[in-house]
Amino acid sequence: MAISDVKEYAHLTPEDMEAIGAELDAIRRDIESSRGERDARYIRNVIRLQRALEIGGRAVLFASFLPPAWLAGVALLSTAKIIENMEIGHNVMHGQWDWMNDPEIHSSTWEWDNAGPSEHWKITHNYLHHKYTNVLGMDDDIGFGLLRVTRDQRWSPFYLGQPVYNLLLQMFFEYGVAIQHLELGKVAKKKWAKNSPQWKQFHSDRHTVLKKIRKQTAKDYLIFPLLTGPAFLSTLTADLTANIVRNIWTNAVIFCGHFPDGAEKFTKFDCDNETQGEWYLRQMLGSANISGGPLLHFMTGNLSHQIEHHLYPDLPSNRLAAIAVRVRELCEKYDLPYTSGALPLQYAKTWRTILKLSLPNKYLHRTADDAPETKSERAFGGPAAIDPTTGRRRGLRTALQQGRRRITRRR
Predict the structure, then answer these.
(1) How many other C-beta atoms are found inside a 10 Å radius of the C-beta of residue 105?
(2) Using CA atoms, how far apart are residues 293 and 289, in angstroms rounded to an integer?
(3) Left (φ > 0), alpha (ψ -120 to 50) or beta: where does 410 sit?
(4) Using CA atoms, how far apart are residues 160 and 165, in angstroms rounded to an integer?
(5) Is the distance from CB of 6 to CB of 286 less than 8 angstroms?
(6) What is the reported pTM?
(7) How many Cα atoms are found within 13 Å in the side-chain-facing hemisphere of 16?
(8) Cβ-proximal residues to 198 (8 Å cutoff; 6+ apart), any chain
(9) Residues 32, 403 contacting (CB under 8 angstroms)
(10) How far apart are CA 106 and CA 240, in angstroms?
(11) What are the pLDDT digits (tens) for 227-268?
(12) Are the beta carbons of 7 and 268 closer than 8 angstroms?
C-alpha cells in the first residue's frame, strides 16, 4: 500500500533528512543567484519560435484543401501548441520567469492556449499537486478522479472501463484539465442548498470554465477556419487534429512523470508536519524522469526532468538538466533510487498499470507493498547499512534491486 513513513521507506535517519534538505536548498540558492540575461533570452526566443510556428501554420492552412498543405499546417500548428502548452504556458504559470518582472511573461497574467482557465489550474496544479504530490486524498492528479493507479484506491466495476476512459482522456486532455477544478464527482455526492456559499462558488467556477471553453472553441473552430474562406472545413479539421496531437502528447508526458514504476504514492499521515527535507524526498520518490536528448527535453517543456521540476517547480526549465546532474549525485550518495527511462518504456509501464488495475485485486499477483506501481516501507523499509567489502552505503536503491532479484529467481 502507499508509503506512510517516508524516512523508514528511504532508509534514512532524521540527520540524513536534514543533510539532504540542506544540500537541495544549496542547489536552489545557486540557481537563483545565477539567473540572468541568458535565461531571459532563452524564454523570449522560445516565445518567438512558438509564435513563428503558429503564424506559419495558420498561413499554410489557407491552402489546406490541398493534402500536402493540410499536413504541413497540422505539423506546424501541433508543434506550436505543444511548445506553448509545455515549455511556455506550464512553466510561466509556475512563476519560473517572474523574477524577470516582465508583465507579459508573468504567472499572474499568462493565459494559455487551451480550454482550462489558468486561475483554476494554478490551484489544482501549482498548489495542491505540487504541495501534496501523490498524497492519497489530497492530490487529484492521482488518476485525475477517473483512473485507478494504485491498489489504495478501492476497486469498483466502474474501473473495468478505464482503458477506454484513458484513451478519451488522452484525446481531450485539455477538457479534463478544464473541469478538474470543479470536482464534479464530489459535487454529485453533495447536497448543498441552492443559495449556500458552496453552491454559489461551484456555479462561479463552472461559469469560468464554460467561458474559457467557449472562447477556445470559437477561436479554433470558427474564427480561424472562417478566415481561410473556402478552406473552412479543411482548416477546422486541421485545428481539431492539432489540438488532439497536443492533448495526447501532453497527457503522455504527464503520465510518464507520475505513473510508471518507481513513482510512489503516500498517505495523508506522511505529509503531516513534514520537514523541508521530507518534502524534498517525497518529490524525489513520487516522480519519474524521461531520458532523451535536447529536442525531447524541449518538447516536453523539460518535464522530462520531472524529479527536478518537482523539487524546484519555480526555477527556470532551461536549468533543470544541470540541476539533474547534482540530484543524481545526491541519490548516489544516499543510495536512493532515481527513476528514469525512455519515453516508450515509461509510457508502456503507465499503460500496464492502467490496464492491470482495471481489475479487482484478486487477479493481481504481487503484494500490495511491493507492486511495481506502489511500494511501501512494510516491504522495503529499514535502516541503511554499510557494505563491509566496499564501504558503500546500502539503502533503499539496494533494497529495491535485491527485491527485484528475488522476484526474478522465483520466476
Answers:
(1) 19
(2) 13
(3) alpha
(4) 10
(5) no
(6) 0.94
(7) 18
(8) 190, 192
(9) no
(10) 29
(11) 999 999 999 999 999 999 999 999 999 999 999 999 999 988
(12) no
